[in-house]
Write a structure and sequence with these properties.
14 helices, elongated, alpha+beta, 2 domains
Length: 404
């Protein structure tokens, strides 16, 4: 216990040098925690958005995602209602939603353009967060049999067609038998996904309307929402064994944008973290080197009095460890304050590449990240102190006592 006490007292020998090392360490920890927190927040938001869009698990025909369809819904799911009921009977399943993806031409009577559409169930609008992206009008709603089907359009597509909420449009597409079919629809709302390329082609309609247009009762896929994300892997394995004729994949298989951003952040913040860690290591190495050089005669005196070299080394390592730990604590406290400040300030970030919507600048403060960063910093600091003091400890006692 005395070595801990002595190591703590020795930090005050050269307060200016100690303070400089503490400031550098705290700033490095602040930068590491803030950048990692920003990456965690962004990836968590993208992960949740991907799960809302695709579901925890996606069930489709085994060829739907890996083979080109020669005609619409060639690889669609038949008798999907029965499969939905079987899935909903499982305790871990909260919701199962069917959807149909198709394309064609959309016209306002004077101008036509290509669209990419998805027929969805009404419950999907809330699960997929369409309310947040709604800019005008309302979401799809239940209508009577005599009314025209409803559609939501991307803002850019509506602007290109020159239509507004309440206008009527015509969808033209190819049926599953290869014939052309048209469907009159009413525009009830405009949405903005934040991706201009998507908004310039996006059409959303109710599932039954999409099936009416394509003259089919098939669906493209089923999105399964589980009660907890941790159940995804086990459920996927069990269901794949139960229905080997189907393809059952996780949301990760379809979240390409998420993986691209994750790869970018991993490289970007990985290099940044390495640079910051090396700065701290060099700072502590310099502090330890100067301290050992100034205390060479003291070290020789301790050795002459019978103190073992491993005890002297342990003292020097403790000093470096305390210095890193104290700097880490200060940095963690600053990072927590910054995280709360950003949450309160709600500073908008410019839109990401390929998107048109800004997002708030936030940074998650994670206990696990704080623990990993602190432990790594302490270990590296003690390693730097070991390297800095090794040659001095190897000197003979007489040479150490005569050091000037």
């Amino acid at each position: 216990m005395k070595w801990f006490y002595l190591a703590w007292l020795n930090l005050g020998r050269n307060r200016r040098r100690t303070l400089a090392s503490l400031v550098l360490t705290a700033v490095a920890v602040l930068a590491l925690m803030s950048s990692k927190g920003f990456a965690d927040y962004t990836l968590d938001a993208l992960r949740q958005a991907s799960i809302r869009e695709h579901g925890h698990l996606v069930i489709s025909h085994q060829h739907y995602f890996n083979q080109q369809e020669q005609q619409p819904l060639e690889w669609g799911l038949e008798n999907h209602q029965q499969l939905q009921q079987q899935l909903l009977a499982k305790p871990e399943v909260e919701q199962v939603l069917a959807s149909v993806r198709f394309d064609g031409l959309i016209s306002n009577g004077e101008k036509s353009t290509i669209f990419l559409a998805e027929g969805i169930e009404l419950a999907a609008q809330q699960l997929q967060g369409l309310q947040a992206s709604l800019r005008q009008g309302q979401l799809l709603s239940q209508i009577d049999a005599q009314a025209d089907p409803q559609v939501l359009l991307g803002q850019s597509l509506a602007h290109n067609l020159g239509v507004e909420v309440g206008d009527y449009l015509t969808l033209l597409s190819t049926t599953t038998s290869g014939a052309l079919n048209a469907l009159d629809v009413q525009l009830v709302g405009l949405v903005n996904t934040g991706i201009p390329d998507v908004d310039s082609r996006l059409v959303l309609t109710e599932l039954s309307a999409a099936q009416e247009l394509l003259l089919t009762d098939k669906v493209s896929k089923l999105a399964v929402y589980l009660s907890h994300e941790l159940l995804q892997q086990s459920s996927q394995q069990q269901w794949q064994a139960l229905w080997p004729e189907l393809q059952i994949g996780g949301w990760q298989d379809h979240a390409h944008y998420y993986h691209n951003v994750a790869g970018l952040y991993e490289r970007l913040f990985g290099v940044l973290g390495l640079i910051l860690m090396m700065m701290v290591v060099f700072a502590i190495f310099n502090t330890a080197s100067m301290s050992v050089m100034e205390r060479t005669r003291e070290i020789g005196t301790l050795a002459a009095m019978g103190t073992k070299k491993r005890e002297i080394l342990w003292l020097l390592l403790l000093e470096a460890g305390f210095l890193a730990a104290l700097g880490a604590l200060i940095g963690l406290a600053l990072a927590a304050m910054l995280s709360q400040g950003l949450h309160w300030a709600q500073i908008p970030m410019p839109p990401a590449p390929g998107q048109s919507e800004s997002y708030p600048l936030l940074s998650h403060w994670s206990f696990s990240t704080a623990l990993e960063t602190s432990l790594m910093l302490i270990i590296l600091a003690m390693l730097a102190a070991l390297i800095a003091s090794w040659n001095t400890l190897k000197k003979p006692i007489v040479e150490a006592l005569n050091h000037v």
